[in-house]
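Dear colleague,

Thank you for sharing your sequence with our group. We've completed the structure prediction you requested, and as agreed, I am returning the results in plain text so they can be pasted directly into your records. Please verify that the sequence below matches your submission; if there's any discrepancy, let me know and we will rerun it promptly.
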Amino acid sequence: MAFSKIPQPGRDDSFKTFVLDQLSALPDVRAKAMFGAHGLYSGDHFFGILDEGRLFFKTDAASQADYTARGMSAFTYESRGKVLTMAYHEVPPEILEQPQELSDWARKAIQLVAKPRHARRKPGPTG
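Please find the predicted structure tokens below.
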């Protein structure tokens, strides 16, 4: 039986520290507190979310297939009694445990947010 090296969610910053360590090959990656979670930035580009021991990366219609094929879902939150879905998908644990592969997935997310807004494609309907 293999044991995961991913820290379990808790009140400390061990998961955030773990993710930042896994992404240390990327330049200028940092976590910034936001609404009870943390946003991941590369320079000025917001590309990921750390929330309750889970990591989400920015996706578009094409890249979300890599996540959904592995059974991973989109980031959701509740606002004014409605559940809203963002174009960020949870990173699979097997990717999270491999720094090189995680960095590759992060680069794709960073490239998405680094594109000018008019060049980004809107995701198709889901559900």
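Summary note from our side: The chain has four helices and six strands.

Kind regards,
the structure core
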